[in-house]
């Protein structure tokens, strides 16, 4: 199994073994379990295991998610992934008896009345579940089907940790437990307006996040690249803009989309929504207006405020009707009960216009689709107007933004996205403002009282800006990864590298809080089990793992006599070393012929350029190899960089990108590329290639 082939030290294995053998009411995993009472026996997970769905609830539908049997079918696929048992029987519907003779996972609904499966604020939630583990019967009883789904994530993580601990087959301790999240919203936001992402990658992010019980994926789907020297000059139309929803060709808003090849059709987006919902994740789409609206004013310049092309003129008669026409086109795409209209960073001098706009859009969207709206928490100074309390406000900024505790006192529902704790920026953070991944130490001890962060913590240094976990208007939290520096700052996989651990940290804190449940993970416990669970997360392969151990050779060829040559590996994630010697042809132009091609990267001889096939951007090393002469290369990659060594030299040459930081200065950053491992030498390559090998690990 691929995830077992990562290297673990003896210390790590012993630590995991100690956690797994605890007799306290705890099963160590991410996020932590609310409670578990353990007995002395074990439930064995072998190839004869079966999954049975309670016939009384098999086809219940709630909340836009699959039926219980639909969730069970995805669970079966995941169980095959983490165990390697390809012959697990198909999901059955029916009943089971307590004296089952074959290991059985039974999914049902309706927790007992003795359980307190409510959020920290006392509100009911369908996401809770109970589980009872006997020697042959593992029962997951969800409040709703989504609760049972999260129970299957608990089961899978225990299987993974048991296997890594040396059990073959896996064994799960018998006993009983209950679990539910502390908060309704546990989500992550990705800026897809400034960086283009293809649907398969976004779907994989949903699947990965679901393994850690993240339940919302907020997609910021429109925006522009900010450079004031362009924005406020004659060349403002040259700035990069993105609007990712592609309307039908006969739509009146069809020309709104600047690049059709960087937009999603309705069918493509529907596929994404289905994948996410099948894994318990709701997509929250965002179109950001009336600021951040350059993509709209490039389409209809008459809608902008003169001199500020990114701001819409809300007093112009056609502006709000145009925005309504945009939503009319795409609202039917979305299965979520909420959407975001953005609504941040508008001119404070136009506060009344802004508030009127938000309220009108709230009434319009609610009336036309039944959906409610969210806005970013910009503080608009008005003494005469106020935003409707029907609107959820997503707090992100002190001191110039809204103050969430004051808003909750006024009756507003709040989502915590405060940037001090929860912001990342693709690859580079201007002035070191944001970390590369969420700061683990800050998440465990960065609150004013020395406790860890949780959704009720908005400020790291002012406790008066924080609230209690019981506040009924605190809906939860959404962490954010922005892409301020555009497409050339990161590849999609580099975005995943920033999100991978961050999502797991965030999941623990939004499910269990900090200092609330005795079973919550310590920072050390988290860091022990996270690498195991990351490697095993089923349903996707964002690590681009090969199934081979570190140090293994994925392929090796003394000489390649005929091109193209196809290997068994579409893409190989870092760390790796790709070695080869190449003799370019004497005269043929090689710039258009890839030397190595993979799912996530392409390597050309021309200037030794890597290409990201999702954005079609090239990253040249700036080295042109001499024709008709062999040059040997070693390409080394980690998640933070990729470099080349030529002809045995120890002087590394790094692939980089040059970022425009707010139009004020340029910043060089390293690029990390997955190995272009699938096809070697496409048709048309006329040179020679020898001593080709791909070795895994550092």
UniProtKB/TrEMBL annotation:
Main enzyme class: hydrolase
Domain of life: Eukaryota
Keywords: Hydrolase, Signal
Keyword field contains Hydrolase: yes
CDD domains: GH20_DspB_LnbB-like (cd06564)
SUPFAM superfamilies, per database record: (Trans)glycosidases, beta-N-acetylhexosaminidase-like domain
Protein name: beta-N-acetylhexosaminidase
Species name: Lentinula lateritia
Lineage: Eukaryota, Fungi, Dikarya, Basidiomycota, Agaricomycotina
